[in-house]
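Hi support team,

I've been running sequence recovery on a batch of backbones for a student project. Most finish fine, but this one hangs at about 90% for roughly twenty minutes before it completes. I'm not sure whether the input is malformed or the queue is just slow. I've pasted the structure tokens below so you can try to reproduce it. Let me know if you need the job ID as well.

Thanks,
M.K.
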């Protein structure tokens, strides 16, 4: 299976946007080789701003550029965008609903060797709590390009979540990108698997594993976490009566809690959450960490089996 980096999809999407729209500008915090915005800098040096190791200041600069009519993409690692610059994102971007796109790379446990200090496993929880913030979590390289273009066309603050490692390319998720809309990848009647980001490939594998046990699993990919596609979730709950969520993020504050919260208030439904279990990560190869922290198809499959046997 082909693998490519979502951060490269972001960079390639930016360059395509810049050729079409002179208002697109990029800011970075001295990590452009890691975020891949160095590609944009090389082609459009007059529209690239290296703000140095000053993430908070970068958010202020991006807000100012947006107020002057530009479409700024403020780019840095997820842990710095959400934690270090959280005050500026809240008060200078989300609160006034300024048209800034925050592109966060190196998110999730698969950031790998950089260890716990750089593995953003709580960034979605932070950004979801800010009113006016839209959150996009593409599943592969091609969808990252689509999400980047959708973010540019959208009027308002956007948090675009990207990874560090190379992930499987999933053809099923390449049919367009509409903010706020889920993608139905498999029909199913017994249980629904809802994934976001790179967990889409694991969800599809888990569905095949369940099929071998004669269970029919619906698979929904959720590239927008806020606003959540409530209609898709509610329909799945009514028709399959069981839900497993899977995300490369803490089980606190992310996809699992969003789905469980919605269902608890509307159609009480058994939900199991696959994600990082309220712990900090550690250094290691991305593949090793995904195994250790239970972010694989086998983990989704096992949670689904438990639900199916309980009800």
């Amino acid at each position: 299976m082909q693998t490519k980096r979502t951060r490269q999809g972001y960079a390639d999407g930016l360059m395509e946007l810049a050729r079409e729209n002179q208002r697109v500008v990029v800011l970075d915090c001295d990590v452009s080789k890691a975020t891949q915005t160095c590609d944009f800098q090389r082609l459009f040096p007059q529209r690239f701003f290296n703000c140095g190791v000053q993430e908070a200041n970068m958010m202020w600069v991006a807000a100012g550029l947006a107020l002057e009519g530009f479409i700024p993409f403020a780019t840095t690692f997820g842990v710095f965008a959400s934690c270090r610059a959280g005050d500026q994102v809240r008060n200078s971007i989300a609160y006034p609903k300024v048209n800034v796109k925050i592109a966060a790379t190196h998110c999730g446990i698969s950031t790998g060797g950089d260890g716990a200090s750089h593995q953003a496993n709580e960034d979605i929880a932070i950004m979801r709590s800010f009113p006016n913030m839209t959150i996009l979590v593409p599943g592969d390289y091609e969808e990252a390009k689509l999400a980047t273009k959708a973010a540019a066309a959208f009027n308002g603050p956007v948090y675009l979540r990207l990874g560090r490692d190379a992930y499987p390319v999933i053809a099923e998720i390449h049919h367009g990108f509409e903010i706020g809309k889920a993608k139905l990848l498999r029909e199913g009647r017994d249980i629904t698997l809802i994934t976001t980001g790179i967990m889409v490939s694991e969800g599809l594998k888990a569905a095949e594993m369940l099929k071998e046990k004669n269970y029919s699993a619906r698979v929904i990919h959720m590239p927008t976490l806020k606003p959540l596609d409530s209609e898709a979730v509610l329909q799945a709950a009514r028709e399959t009566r069981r839900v497993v969520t899977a995300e490369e993020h803490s089980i606190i504050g992310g996809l699992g809690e969003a789905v469980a919260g919605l269902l608890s208030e509307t159609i009480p439904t058994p939900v199991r959450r696959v994600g990082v279990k309220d712990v900090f990560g550690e250094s290691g190869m991305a593949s090793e960490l995904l195994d250790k922290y239970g972010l694989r198809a086998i983990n989704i499959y096992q949670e689904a089996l438990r639900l199916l046997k309980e009800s």
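--
Follow-up from support: It reproduced on our side and the slowdown came from queue contention, not your input. The chain has 13 helices and 14 strands. No action needed from you.
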